[in-house]
Amino acid sequence: MRHESILLLGGSGFIGSHIAAQLAATGRHVIVPTRRYDRARHLLVLPTVQIVEADIMDDATLSSLVQRADAVINLVGVLHSQQSRAGSKWGRDFERAHVELTRKLVRSCRTQNVRRCVHMSALGVGLNAPSMYLRSKAAAEKIILEAPFLDVTIMRPSVVFGEEDKFLNLFAKLQKFMPVLALGGADAKFQPVYVKDVAQAFVSVIDNQQTYGKTFDLVGPSVYTLRELIKLAGMYSGHERPLIGLPHFLAKLQAWMLEFMPGGPLMSRDNVDSMQVDNVAGPRSQLPPDWKATPLEAVAPHYLARD
Ligand SMILES: NC(=O)c1ccc[n+]([C@@H]2O[C@H](COP(=O)([O-])OP(=O)(O)OC[C@H]3O[C@@H](n4cnc5c(N)ncnc54)[C@H](OP(=O)(O)O)[C@@H]3O)[C@@H](O)[C@H]2O)c1
Asked: What is the CATH number of the domain that holds 15?
């Protein structure tokens, strides 16, 4: 069955915009809710994409959006949250965006009889993982997988790179303005994956019944330490600087100070905790069918060299 009308939650963001473009290229109707219309304005050029300013945390609003679709893709996620309170395993923002929204989505899909859902998770999730981000993402996976009436596919990417990423671009920018970088997690391993490949994975599974009930890891062809990625970002942008690796306790102290930065932290204590486990595919990882990942070296030099 071809799904013709897709509700794309989180479609205004970095990855969502690429998924919206690729879905639109297949001629499907794509509904993109956003809290602020301005954030999705760049999607106006896509003829079959409809932007709706809406509060998807409101049950009635979410239900009416789900009603207009025959499949849902849920990408909503945040990277930072307040610290957890006593008795809670993650902070309030993670609870709302990852756990509560997923619960609401399951309810709306049930009442509106929408069965197909592709859900964005993250590589390394686990209920006992070292960070609130990874634990709350695991809780969301559990909620959606336990909904018996849903045909779910879960996607777990490693860190995602691409022209508008907040990862390699950030490290390039930091090296432009700082004489030396001091960072924790320098030896943590990542397997970065290209945003267009991530989008292609979502589009390729949406109608594929063989992917129902499956979880796929989305990883690039190579593994790098954070130190190596920072070096590449510096090299490609023409501002390579020395990097001092900080021990865990100093990295946490630095992150704690960064959390007071206006406009959101560059790195939080929770991000430092996430890096205690490598973010790479394991022996049991499954990739989506017929999916091929683009090497970072084929793409990143072009956009990092811009400024
Ligand atoms: N980027 C990566 O390297 C990476 C790696 C692994 C997994 N992921 C996961 O992939 C997903 C998308 O990531 P991204 O990098 O594209 O993120 P992004 O650019 O920050 O976009 C986040 C999207 O989520 C929506 N959103 C966030 N909080 C919300 C809330 N409380 N209520 C309603 N909408 C909310 C935003 O909508 P508005 O328009 O309303 O702001 C936006 O469309 C996330 O779940 C993330 O955890 C990302």
From this structure: 3.40.50.720
